[in-house]
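Page header: ASSEMBLY MODEL / two components / 225 residues total.
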Amino acid sequence: DAGVIQSPRHEVTEMGQEVTLRCKPISGHDYLFWYRQTMMRGLELLIYFNNNVPIDDSGMPEDRFSAKMPNASFSTLKIQPSEPRDSAVYFCASSLDGEETQYFGPGTRLLVL
Amino acid sequence: QKEVEQDPGPLSVPEGAIVSLNCTYSNSAFQYFMWYRQYSRKGPELLMYTYSSGNKEDGRFTAQVDKSSKYISLFIRDSQPSDSATYLCATSHSGNTGKLIFGQGTTLQVKP
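Prediction written out in full:
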């Protein structure tokens, strides 16, 4: 299996622009997670889905952030408008009920100037 | 107070040393405890997984959970330069199918 796929791997944008991050989970996995990692705050869960339905979005920092999962093989995290404090590494992870681990993608490094 | 506290280090040890990494947590309802390893510019990957209290051993790695003191430990024996990475402890109410609460991560460097 190719593992969790994220795109783009790097994104540099200017403040105020819209940013869309993409994730393809491992085939057959029924849970999908979006995390954000910064030096100051560590790794934080933003939102997660079960069978394409959002279960917990309490970690989404504000209304500028939105996430969708239109089907089992694709999810997006959108920031509109972006701000410099959104600069971080964003990870997508997927898991299968009954297994022990969440499988993380390689991350998207976002820099908002 | 953070739900999971972890000293970020960095921790530097010579090759062959025994390494002890630790976390504390605040919520006694947590039942699942994990250690993830993250190499530079990579995503975290599961290293050890335990349910409730006790020890679990896997090769050179031993995970220990003491629920009475809300303390999580990871021991690495005969440390190798390839063990150089950031180690993140994590806890959860519901295993891998729910919210994982991560510690800050401890950066470990094993010098040859």
